[in-house]
Write a structure and sequence with these properties.
By secondary structure, the protein is of the alpha+beta class. Helix content is 25%, strand content 19%.
Length: 97
C-alpha cells in the first residue's frame, strides 16, 4: 500500500494565498488551515472545497478547481496574462567578459 503524501500546511496555505491574489480574489484567512471567499470555503492542505449553502460534504477538488469555481462565480477579477510574443525580451544577457 503506497504511503500517504504529506502536505506541509504552511506551504500549501502560502501557495493558495499567492494564487488567489494573482487571480484577483478577495479572501479571508479564518485559520492557518482555512480560507473563505464569500460562500466558498477552501482548506489548502487537503484541497477540500465546500459552499456554505450546500448540505453536501466538501470534496477534495484542489486549488485549480477552487479558482475555476471562483471565476465561474465572478469572484476572480484578474485577467489572464497575455502570451509573450518575444521571449528574448525577458532574457537577461550577461555582458561580455
Amino acid at each position: 500500500m503506497p504511503a500517504k503524501r504529506r502536505i506541509d500546511a504552511t506551504q500549501a496555505m502560502a501557495e493558495a494565498e499567492a494564487a488567489l491574489t494573482r487571480a484577483g480574489v478577495k479572501f479571508v484567512r479564518h485559520s492557518p488551515f482555512h480560507l473563505k471567499v464569500q460562500v466558498f470555503n477552501f482548506w489548502p492542505s487537503t484541497g477540500k472545497v465546500s459552499r456554505d449553502d450546500s448540505s453536501k460534504k466538501g470534496a477534495n477538488l484542489g486549488l485549480a478547481v477552487f479558482i475555476r469555481l471562483l471565476r465561474e462565480a465572478g469572484l476572480a477579477t484578474a485577467q489572464p496574462i497575455d502570451v509573450v510574443d518575444d521571449p528574448g525580451a525577458f532574457i537577461v544577457q550577461r555582458p561580455p567578459q
